[in-house]
Batch of 3 targets.
Target 1
Amino acid sequence: DSGVTQTPKHLITATGQRVTLRCSPRSGDLSVYWYQQSLDQGLQFLIQYYNGEERAKGNILERFSAQQFPDLHSELNLSSLELGDSALYFCASSGTGATFGGYTFGSGTRLTVV
Amino acid sequence: GENVEQHPSTLSVQEGDSAVIKCTYSDSASNYFPWYKQELGKRPQLIIDIRSNVGEKKDQRIAVTLNKTAKHFSLHITETQPEDSAVYFCAANQGGKLIFGQGTELSVKP
């Protein structure tokens, strides 16, 4: 157990639908990151939150949005789903401070759009 | 922004041989370079990292080297074992986030 909790582990839904992925960071970590990993693809950065505020945005579609709540858990909302959105979605968290020390990843949510 | 290129995309070695994976980065401000191992269907896990004030770091059979001038860093695995088979990702930091390479699928044949 990495300490980063993602739910659900698997999600199957139809095109056009909306889903919410949830992530609880490791205790003490203030930063949460979302990545998308499609089949045979690398880890594409979507968005970063730090202590409730959006810190950085990557190639995140307008149909996707995220937020981080006061208890530091984060949710990634995917709407108007398309077949191409099928992927593994990872959340990661990291500590803070002057020296960045890399991420701890959750186990991911496998989204299948049919 | 930061761009990280990783080569090769696939690598097949015999058990006991060495494996080398190379990455280049574009942002000279990057100062942290981790390597992650991802087994099939599982989460990426940090296996080793290096900061820009160090040229080489070793941890048992794994080593990473960094050439800041050329903006490239490499992962070296010696005495490979079948359990080393996985996808390996390099990354470089851009501010407080990581930008990943495309991954290298390493296959170690017994």
Target 2
Amino acid sequence: EVQLVESGGDLVQPGGSLRLSCAASGFTLSSYSMNWVRQAPGKGLQWVSYISSGGSTIYYAGSVKGRFTISRDNAKNSLFLQMDSLRDEDTAVYYCATAGTYAWFRHWGQGTLVTVSS
Amino acid sequence: DIQMTQSPSTLSASVGDKVTITCRASQSISSWLAWYQQKPGKAPKVLIYQASSLESGVPSRFSGSGSGTEFTLTISSLQPDDFATYYCQQYNVYPWTFGQGTKVDIK
């Protein structure tokens, strides 16, 4: 069974940093491109970042470009999101999600909550 | 960025009703559209990809249609488990974008 488990969400002050992790099991992570998608409280879904299966292609949403860094460790079946210079508007549940050849999201984790507040 | 606009934002319906949700793209996205269902406190679940392809395990009462800029998600006979929020997502052009959501609640 495919399973994605996010961790690392926490309460952090504006300007602070946080590193999210996504542990994959039940499949070989290296076969999939991966994404982070977030959802602010009571709001809709927003795609955040993409990394290709081998890690050579990376995209970011404009609102996080230059502040967030996506990476992966295929040997450890793990995906990461380094979040720096956090802002109030980054407060959200962050989901990791798989994508295949095309960028629709088949498998999702349960999400991890990031709260940015002083 | 491509804007995705869903209508209506909220829809009240009864069990057994036929429900249709519309998603419009600000420019042509061919058939590169997916539909998701999300229940409170849960992750989204894909229902439809490539505008009309039903994801494995999804009940056949769900169907998708459209191409270019206008798309629809139809639930042929609404079931109690279908009360949820539905999102469309385009994956034709980066950055991939979602509609604002359509909440289907009990009439």
Target 3
Amino acid sequence: EVQLVESGGGLVKPGGSLRLSCAASGFTFSSYSMNWVRQAPGKGLEWVSSISSSSSYIYYADSVKGRFTISRDNAKNSLYLQMNSLRAEDTAVYYCARGSSGGNAFDIWGQGTMVTVSS
Amino acid sequence: EIVLTQSPGTLSLSPGERATLSCRASQSVSSSYLAWYQQKPGQAPRLLIYGASSRATGIPDRFSGSGSGTDFTLTISRLEPEDFAVYYCQQYGSSRYTFGQGTKLEIK
């Protein structure tokens, strides 16, 4: 079964850091680009970051650039999001999502992990 | 940055009716990079349509996508009870993705 499972969410104070992980199974992880998408409570979807299959290309939304770092370990079938200098507005459910073969959509999503930034 | 505007914000229809959801882009979008997602409460989004008009694996044929340039449409031909959800369009361009704000499809 193709599956993505996020972990690492929790409660953190403003200015703090958190590292999210996404474990992939059921497909050849190293062949696909991967993405992080977030959803603030009661709000819509916001793309956060993308990384190509070999980590050659990395992109960020302006809202997280310079604070968040996406990475992957193809040997461990894992995707990561290092989040630093967290703000209240980063509070959201964070989803990892697989890029489709053509890279033009996100075809597999994890169940999400909640990040709450609050003092 | 390309902004996607979805309309209506909320659509109230009955099972069996036809639903037409709109996604308008602030500038031209490649049809290859326009997708639609469905999200139910408490669940992750699910890919419905990619490349503006191609159905994702396992998506029923009552879902169809169309459009080009700046105007795209998701049509659900005959609504089933499980189709009531929030729908998002998404585009890719200039090394970034953007989502529309969503259309909530509710039971009338």
